[in-house]
Specification:
The complex is a heterodimer.
Chain A: H1 6-18, H2 20-24, H3 26-41, H4 50-56, H5 62-75, H6 80-93, H7 99-111, H8 118-129, H9 134-150, H10 158-166, H11 173-186, H12 197-206, H13 212-222, H14 230-244, H15 249-262, H16 267-285, H17 290-306, H18 326-338, H19 345-355, H20 361-375, H21 379-390, H22 395-411, H23 416-423, H24 433-445, H25 453-462, H26 470-486, H27 488-504, H28 509-524, H29 526-534, H30 554-557, H31 564-567, H32 570-578, H33 586-600, H34 607-622, E1 629-631, H35 638-654, E2 664-673, H36 680-689, E3 693-697, E4 705-714, E5 720-728, H37 734-738, H38 744-760, E6 765-775, H39 779-800
Antiparallel strand pairs in A: 1-4, 2-6, 3-4, 4-5, 5-6
Chain B: E1 4-8, E2 14-19, H1 28-38, E3 47-50, E4 53-60, E5 63-69, H2 75-93, H3 98-103, H4 105-115, E6 116-117, E7 120-121, H5 126-129, H6 145-149, H7 176-179, E8 183-197, E9 203-216, E10 224-228, E11 232-234, E12 246-248, E13 250-253, H8 262-265, E14 267-270, E15 275-285, E16 294-302, E17 307-316, E18 323-332, E19 339-344, E20 350-354, E21 359-368, E22 372-380, E23 395-402, E24 411-416, E25 424-439
Parallel strand pairs in B: 8-25, 11-12
Antiparallel strand pairs in B: 1-2, 1-5, 3-4, 4-5, 6-7, 8-9, 9-15, 10-14, 10-24, 13-15, 16-17, 17-22, 18-21, 18-23, 19-22, 20-21, 23-25
Classes of the chains: A mainly alpha, B mainly beta.
Keywords (chain A): Membrane, Protein transport, Transport
Subcellular location (chain A): Endomembrane system
InterPro entries (chain A): AP_beta (IPR026739), AP_complex_bsu_1_2_4 (IPR016342), ARM-like (IPR011989), ARM-type_fold (IPR016024), B-adaptin_app_sub_C (IPR015151), Clathrin/coatomer_adapt-like_N (IPR002553), TBP_dom_sf (IPR012295)
Chain lengths: ~800, ~450
Amino acid sequence: MPYLGGEETVRELKRALSNPNVQSEPLRYRNTVLRVVRAMSQGVNVSGLFSEMVKACATVDVVQKKLVYMFLCSYASLNPELSLLVINTLRKDCQDPNPMVRSLALRNMSNLRLPSLVEYVEQPLTAGLRDRAACVRRVAVLGWAKLYNLQPGSDIDAAVVNELYSLLRDPDPVVMVNCLRALDEILKEEGGVVINKPITHHLLNRMKECDVWGQCEVLRVLQRYRPQSDDELFDILSLLDASLVSSHPPVMAATLSLFLSLCADLPAVSLAAVERVSGPLLAACGSGSREMRFTALCHIQLLMRSVPGLMGPHFKRFFCGYAEPAYIKQRKMQIMVELVNDENVSMLLDELKGYCTDVNTDTAQAAITAIGRIGRSYSDRCLEILTGLLGLKQDHITSAVVQTMRDLVWVCPQSSDTVCSALEGCEETLQDSQGRQALLWLLGVYGEGVSSAPYTLEVFIDGVKSEVSSGVKMELLTATVRLFLTRPAETQDMLGRLLHYCIEEETDMCVRDLALLYYHLLKCGIEETRNVLQGRRSDPSLGVLIGRPADPISQWACSFNTLEPLKKGATETLTASRGSPEHEAPKPKTVVELSETLDCSHVHSDPPGSLSADQHSDSTADLPTTPLTLSLSPTISPEEFERLWLQCHSLLSEQDAEESNDFLQTEERIRCSAVLQRSPQILQAAMQLVNIQTLAFTPPCTLPWRVFFYTHTAGTPASSLILGELLYAGEADLQPAAQKDDEEAERKVDEDAAAGELKGREDGQVEVKVTLKQQPKDEKAVRAFLSVLSTVLHTLSSEKA
Amino acid sequence: MIRQLFILSSKGDPLLFKDFRGEAGDDVVNVFYQKVTALPGDQPPVVMAFRDLHFLHVRQGGLYWVATTTADASPFTIIEFLNRLAALVKDYCGGLSEKSVQMNFALIYELLDEVLDYGYIQTTSSDMLRNFLQSEAVSSRPFSLFDLSNVGLFGADTQQSKVAPSSAAARPIQAGREQGGRSEIFVDVVERMSVVVGSNGVLMKADVEGEIRIKCFMPSCSEIRIGLNEELSIGKSQLRGYGAAVRVDGCSFHQGVRLDEFDSHRILRLCPSQGEQTVMQYQLTDDLPTAPPFRLFPTIERDGTGRLILFLKLRCDLPPKSSAVNVCASVPVPKGAVSLSQELSSPDQSAELQSQNRAVAWQIPRLAGGTQLSALFKLDVPGLSSASMLEVGPVGLSFELPKFTATGLQIRFLRLSPVQPAPSQRWVRYVTHSDSYSIRI
């Protein structure tokens, strides 16, 4: 009925509405109006009935009035002239003795959204602000906000604003909250409602009267207030303490937001607040509503960035229910991975193992990836599970397992033997291109260990004509060339066939170019090829890295209690969990890999790269037999670091720096991208990759910007401890400091820096001062360390740029 | 701030649409529905973005309740609000379904008008709202002979009227006005269990989330007092009374609950407003006072012909007086299982192979405490290998335990304040649901 014959319905309704018999019977009249509104909400265009409905507006029946108003508000913009007729009825209703009728009329008058009617609405709205009934005042206050948004750019009436400010003291809490909302909209251009000390304290005192929604609104507005003294701040915090552990998640979240914004300079207080909300958040995770559970889970992930151990004792709460939707399961698994420790690892793995055979393939793959993540620290147990899963011979599981193994083996090369033996025979079940690419990569790199590798590749090469995915073809090329290097006799023939096909018949340019490149590379000789293709191996020490260092709260505080944490889909975290730098996207991958390997074989030309490479070769020339090894253990607490740092300082000031046997202090300058200072977490992660532990950061984008870090050097005659500081004091600091150093290598750096200064500003390069303190003294190690550090910084800068 | 709000049926028909700020295009609803249907599976993410609009939705009663908003809105607030709105609609219309929303759309529009103004939440308390709502709810419940069975011969009270029918609370709260609806109050103790039992029968995890809900059909109710078990202790250390202590880890209360007698006598005092509200929520983690309600003893074998044989014994460890209803055990089976033959211990049970979920669902309508059932399933699985046994994963149980609480929490008494204008009826009900009860094999 509603979709077909819409016109018929409209005509019939029109007849009924103008029928005097219907009009004389209130109940029939109301039912006819109801039918009109029903048709409207079902999508029929009933705008033709506007004039009849205007007439129907003059009635004493409140239900009918409401229905007609609803109709009029939807269609007023199409009939501005006829709407003028309604205004009279509405204005009359505004005088009605019944407050409900008054508020109804006032609300709909402001909802008509017709700029031409503004002049008629202002007077009733002004009267409405002083009405006896709270429900009329509530409507009137928001009415002003609607009015101002109707005429953007019009002058703001100071009298109205003052009146609204004074209504903040209204006895009705909803009127008060509405005033905040209305002022926020009206004064949008001036930054919203002004929150000064008296208003803050007034709002805080009246919070108890508000319902949940009002409290959230007040807490949101209060984020703008900056207390004048610490005493005031702590007074506010203690007032709000009860709502921090409120059983209503909205209030709890809004309160924490407020805490974090008030205590931005007091990390200890923020941390304490975060720990306090963990209880209510966990309770919300068990809420009956799935959506609420999901929201709470996403926010727990956010909190865990700063307090990784927050949910440690409650890891069982994150076990998935079997009927839960996939989006909740994936979040829970991500949290479970973060919570792994020696005691619970077997329980968590048992639980995750159960999800691997889930009906939902996304859930199954997420579970397998999660096991792979845990495998970085507990590789044996995880590989056992993963190998077992291969036996299921199901394509989506096998594909996910092979990809996970590839990522795992990159981080933990010591597990390559197990992976190699597991790979036999799984090519038959692999269907999707991602999985086959992973298998090919593994066969290429670890082909020596897989006895059937050449035969597997041969099957792929024989079927290359029917292969659709160019990613698979490129991976196949690389894998075959790599395998040729280790097992030439078995591979030579098929490599020839593959290259011939790819160069002569292939239509995809990327594949063809890659084949040509390998062809020419092979012509250059086997050693060159080996340098290019096997130059890049993963570092065994990567395997030690587990757990994320805690982020400062300020990094996520602004996105807490917004939609941001909910949006980051599983996809993003999935790529993040991929981890291994070699596998981003299939196409750029090969390019990156090649350029980097070429770099290592001294064919570099770009300035930042050459600098680091020069230094690198310098340092290796100095230390031909003992390469520098850095390690993080034993760990040093921030307090200990501070003590050692100051101790070095005082010792050095007492005696001459050069003559000390125990301590060494050097200063060095390194150019790097200014972007670094804005992303300390990237710097931190990068430093961890080379086993340098960062301890403290100044907040991003402040001057002077400092980073403190430490590491231990081993392998040199005796191991020593290096403490360091990166300092960027701003542009002004550069020139005088640049003349002090006298070492040749450093002068070179400085010249580079000075030259770079002129044109370097626009590409965001700045100079960072490095101060190093070492105990015991070992100059060679320091030199080597400096080159490592500068390489890290340069790599980061070039990646950022 | 909420920009638009709409309710869609599960098939995507718009049931209600309201634009609060006059900023919407007409196609918002369609955009949302296309986004939902474009996804595989039927579980879309809670937040979806389209240009600068963000859709947040909850699913209640098979309907999509969608709000559009800006990126900086609080998800906690909006989701809590949508849930609250659904509860209000349920209260006022007597139930949540496509039909009841369609029949009562005028009432719901009226409700929305009062609840939200210009996208700002005004109030959701049914005490305030009831003054403003004028439309009568249309009940969508079909006529049922069960309703008649409650009326005794010549109007006398029958035995049956002492037991409230399960649907008694599913009616509009304001319907009573001229029909002289009974003034009743329901107090429900509802618990949800999530349990993981290891393959060796050891309890790995047992959580209970419970709440006390009140559904009040009294036009005006001054104060009620709810007495809980006096030996109820809260937290790890606290112990009260002798005998078997009833313990919960933590609890929280509705704003309106006065707790002055809670510490001494475990009495909650409150003035309930019309409709449904949660008075108290509590959790218990890892420390059930009794044994978990179900144990499963599975035997899984492959026979020579490549068939998978599952022999399951399910024991119900409830006290003999209680029983579980609507028990369903879902046993994941290897992919590619084609046919199922079954031997069940009684005719009222049934089992079927759901190839969609790759599971055998074993339905048991009623299982009394202290009894044991067994079932033998033979599955034909082409290409069954020893590794396929891995796929016979954790068994999920869903059930309802009427008149039973897992924590042992009981309502000692429910007293209405002395002055009550009309005779009123009080009902106390207990039920424990399975949130997720999985038993590893």
